[in-house]
Specification:
The chain is α/β, with parallel strands linked by helices. The protein is 31% helix and 22% strand.
Length: 209
């Protein structure tokens, strides 16, 4: 595998300050992809044992919350095989840090549909990944307000919880969680916030505020 870049301090691709690895190679070719040069599997530099050591070193400070894999697509088959030793090492050395991965593949259709069944290493790779942001970038669904994803079709999936429970569990930012909690407790009438009586079970009424 080749890689395009390593960002030592990244705040755009997952929560907190993170190290990000941009791998080379992607077969999705999404319209208006943010990084088309990484489609080429030969782009960038060779990913070696030295690269792994470099990333392990970058992850050391306590303020670094974790590692993000993106690209390119880390879940192209050859990339999965190359990334396995890295994610294994990261979790051994820093079990408290989280691992995010971006892919153009779909979690149910592709990852669970055939990769986990047919590809050697996918199950093990996934066992180290905490969060998977899935789906191709769709320009028609582009939304700059979304946290950590480019288009609204993409989902931020809690991998271990979703696999364990057999149903999709999504990650939400602290801001989204706050909104969701408030929506459960309150509703809005004529721009006024009304606390929902505990016994009320009606659907949320919401007006523009
Ligand atoms: S999956 Fe990501 S890297 Fe690949 S073409 Fe789409 S946006 Fe670009």
């Amino acid at each position: 595998m080749n890689y395009a870049d390593i960002k030592q301090y990244d705040v755009a691709n997952g929560p907190g300050v993170r190290v990000s690895l941009f791998v080379s190679g992607c077969t999705h070719h999404c319209k208006e992809c943010f990084n088309p040069e990484t489609w080429d599997f030969g782009y960038g530099k060779p990913f070696t044992e030295e690269t792994i050591k470099e990333i392990i070193g970058y992850l050391e400070p306590s303020y670094i919350k974790g590692l993000t894999l993106l690209g390119g697509d880390p879940l192209e088959h050859c990339n999965q095989i190359a990334l396995l030793p890295l994610v294994k090492r990261v979790k051994e050395v820093y079990p408290e840090k989280n691992l995010w991965c971006y892919t153009g593949y779909d979690f149910e259709k592709d990852v669970k549909g055939y990769m986990m069944k047919e590809w050697e290493g996918t199950r093990e790779l996934l066992s180290y990944i905490d969060v998977l942001v899935d789906g191709e970038f769709e320009i028609e669904k582009k939304n700059l307000k979304l946290a950590f994803r480019g288009s609204s079709n993409q989902r931020i999936i809690l991998v271990q919880e979703s696999l364990e429970k057999g149903q999709l569990k999504l990650w939400h930012s602290a801001y989204e969680k706050e909104i969701m909690t408030k929506e459960k407790q309150y509703f809005f009438i004529n721009r006024k916030i009304i606390r929902r009586p505990k016994e009320e079970k009606t659907v949320l009424v919401r007006e523009n505020i």
